[in-house]
Amino acid sequence: MGAFQGTLTYRQYFINSPLPRDWRDRFQAGIEKYAFQEIDAASDAERSIGWCSPLFALDTELTPEMYLYNEYIALALRIDTLKVPGPLLNLQTEAHARRLMAEQKRDALSRYERAELKEQVKAELRRKLMPSIKTVDMVWHWQTGILQFHSTNEKVNTDFLELFEQTFGLRPMLDCAYTAALYGNLDLTDAEKKALESIEPCQFVDDDTALNAMREE
To answer: How many CB atoms lie within 10 A of CB 160?
Structure first.
């Protein structure tokens, strides 16, 4: 899901805080620290999140030349998942259990033996399986503070915001009518800013039209 190819769908944020003078060095250190790390198949980890190149997901040793494009910073959030499917795990565990009972001439295994065997099979399958890889592009115009993250999935956006703040020490704010009015260059008076706190959502279409729009494929 990205800025360089595919459909152009994104959630927009903006950074209201000024950048530190040494932002290039700080950002490079943060990107190196939170660059993507592959999942260790010998561990119990099922998910790994970090930065990679938006042009090639396997490029995780990031230098400024790979993500800094004049006034833009472009990175991709890479999410790997290594999880053994439940039906496959159960099937392979049963196959191993039958083989073990046949070898030992037994009619059944104890609950403890089956649990231990299941963990052994799971570890064996993890070494054979390849993780699923998902990347989502981020484009940040660091001069204006406008930040576009090319996913509208709530969970993925939450992961992105947490990683972004850890990496850059800045907190993105969702770009909506309220934040644009409050933090944009509108020169609002104190009274107008206070009035923003009491505004309520406004529906621009009737209920039937909104419901039909949501049902459309």
So the answer is: 23
3-class DSSP state for residue 204?
coil
Side-chain-side CA neighbours of residue 119 (13 Å): 8
| Residue 182 one-letter amino acid | L
Other Cβ atoms within 10 Å of 170 Cβ, number: 21
Which residue in the block uniquely carries the two structure tokens 């993105």? 172
Q: Domain map of the chain by residue range?
A: 11-82+131-174, 87-126
Cα Dmax for the chain: 85
Phi-psi group of 6: left, alpha or beta (phi > 0 → left; psi -120 to 50 → alpha; rest → beta): left
Buried b (16+ CB within 10 A) or exposed e, 14-44: bbeeebeeebeeebbebbeebbbeebebeee
pLDDT tens track for 13-47: 999 889 999 999 999 999 999 999 999 988 889 99
Residue range 37-75, pLDDT digits in tens:
999 988 889 999 999 999 999 999 999 999 999 999 999
For the entire predicted model, the pTM comes to 0.76
